[in-house]
Amino acid sequence: MSDALKHKKSVSRRDLLVGSAVGSASVLSAPALMAQGAVTEWKLVTSWPKNLPGPGVTAQRIADQVALLSGGAFKIRLFAAGELVPALGVFDAVSNGTADMAHTASFFWQGKIPASVYFTAVPFGLLPHEHISWIEQGGGQALWDELYAPFGIKPVMAGNTGVQMGGWYKKPLQGLDDLRGLKIRMPGLGGEVMRRLGAAPAGLPPGELFQALQTGVLDATEFLGPWSDRAMGFQKAARYYYSPGFHEPNGTGEALFNQAAYDALPTEFQAILIEACRAENGRALAESDWENAGSLKLLQQKDGVEVLTYPEDILEALRVTTGEVLLDTSRQDPMSNRIYQSHQAALKRLSAWSDIAMRRFLSARDGFV
Amino acid sequence: MSDALKHKKSVSRRDLLVGSAVGSASVLSAPALMAQGAVTEWKLVTSWPKNLPGPGVTAQRIADQVALLSGGAFKIRLFAAGELVPALGVFDAVSNGTADMAHTASFFWQGKIPASVYFTAVPFGLLPHEHISWIEQGGGQALWDELYAPFGIKPVMAGNTGVQMGGWYKKPLQGLDDLRGLKIRMPGLGGEVMRRLGAAPAGLPPGELFQALQTGVLDATEFLGPWSDRAMGFQKAARYYYSPGFHEPNGTGEALFNQAAYDALPTEFQAILIEACRAENGRALAESDWENAGSLKLLQQKDGVEVLTYPEDILEALRVTTGEVLLDTSRQDPMSNRIYQSHQAALKRLSAWSDIAMRRFLSARDGFV
């Protein structure tokens, strides 16, 4: 049994196995564990404040569902950002066994694993339902597993904050020239695209964004969507709210499992973990969409925010530059290239269907609502 | 214990309770049941042939997941259409306790419960992710529960076939006049819309559609999307494939539970049932989208099918007439009116967000892929 497993079970599986009559390699089933009153306890570290709307709620809900589905035999104790390890220390904590599990977002690891960004969102990439289709049907999960395997980590999708907005601007954008020198917060590949177009992307933590925007340290910032953004108060510091969120058309939450801890679970508990995360993808997206829709209305009708679309010359420059940035990332290492190729193939396949099915329907619905 | 429960458990919960020391109203927990080696067995009837791509696969997967998540303590035996009861007899079978559970689609019950159609799809209504948002966040589930309560049935969403195509036509449509006298298969409210526009909707079972289209008994037919439609062979009988699927922008599968059987389950098994169905919403949609996208390409590049959009004058007539049909359904009874009002409010709220987030992104992605 690895170090990663030593500290986490009130009755360890090893103790139970030692006491069993047969010395075979087979492990006790969940019912057998339950019969002996054993409780498996896991530590879950997250990158979010406790119950942060969206991701924080998702993390707690997954822990609650696992307890419910296992009849209390598998309990997950949640530690919010900073309680056990720092917000961005959760990957290492799961890797070295300080925690059994994390809830976070893959693009945080871009510095050490360049291609990890593909598993949150790619500029001009896949929408939420398309992203799930790539991961589950198009080979995405196998690549993600392979990418994290050297760290002893198994990743799965867990929750989704949906299609994001493009960001808050203090002045309206007339055209491409307005990006030159623009002090904007935009992480991930979108920030690099902005940089190449002459903007000055700044890396600031979420807690400092409102003040930076209000005092002029920033000219613009993106965050998530209307639900979270209104809670952050951005509408009091900037009036122009741009769409689309070209840089983040999707917002997949990431659950990380310590591989050794996961492998040691009974089959039923493995299935319960995976199914709870899968169910949360739809539940969190439904919640984000509902709340985003409600907050959008308040922003427009109560707060006087102007919701605008990026000018076409800016969008064209963003598309071209995104293509260059993605191609550059694909050349970093062979694994990045394989992930890039798989993502692009899924994008080509799924976008043709989305255009004919979903987009034509959205156009046809105009004038009905 | 109701009649509905008598025939389904290898060791009945009543036997276990009689043998327990305390005569309280509390029930044995799942771990306690497992400890005693009890297995709960349910009968699941479906409206589909065994493993029919899409819905049939979904039904089997839910049964498999329940067994896996419960460590084999809760088993569901699946009966395909006609094995225990006919395809469209599953609602009554669950209501009277012949079966514990069904997997089907709500619009089949339109004849006896007019508003049931809202829980599959509404013409010009909600897209898959919007529909889930309405059911889970916008009050849809409570209305659905109330609608089926008089029948002793609890419904939940279970799987999704995604945005549908508009249908197969033997001749291209020039304009509204071409709908007059058109012999078309289109069930649900879409069929009524077509009838009011002068078409002659015909009710034919899926197994007869190909021949009817080939021999001219039908001029046009809709079914699902490219994945299922290509398997049905429609491309050999008609060349023009229309979008959007104005009549079915969503394809929610419906799981029905006998309320008394569900209430008698331990909390853990109730949670396992619900979570397995919820997870299947995303899993089935991911599969449908992936397979639809692949089959669409084959239809266009290999089978010589022309994918067209309904002419604008037809779309405008469809919108106006759909509005009239929906208003008429809302006047059938108070419950239909409440469901109509709730659905329209959700559509207004969610479509404004979809237009700004998803639709603007789909437009901006043009020229990138």
TrEMBL record, chains A, B:
InterPro entries: DctP_fam, SBP_TakP-like, TAT_signal, TRAP_DctP_sf
Taxonomic superkingdom: Bacteria
A biological process from GO: transmembrane transport
GO cellular component assignments: tripartite ATP-independent periplasmic transporter complex
Binding locations of Na(+): F223
Sample GO molecular function, one term: metal ion binding
Residues reported to bind substrate: Q164, R185, E222, E248
Keywords, alphabetical: Metal-binding, Receptor, Signal
PANTHER family: EXTRACYTOPLASMIC SOLUTE RECEPTOR PROTEIN (PTHR33376:SF5), PTHR33376
NCBIfam families linked: TRAP_S1
Name under which the protein is recorded: Extracytoplasmic solute receptor protein YiaO
The gene coding this protein: yiaO_4
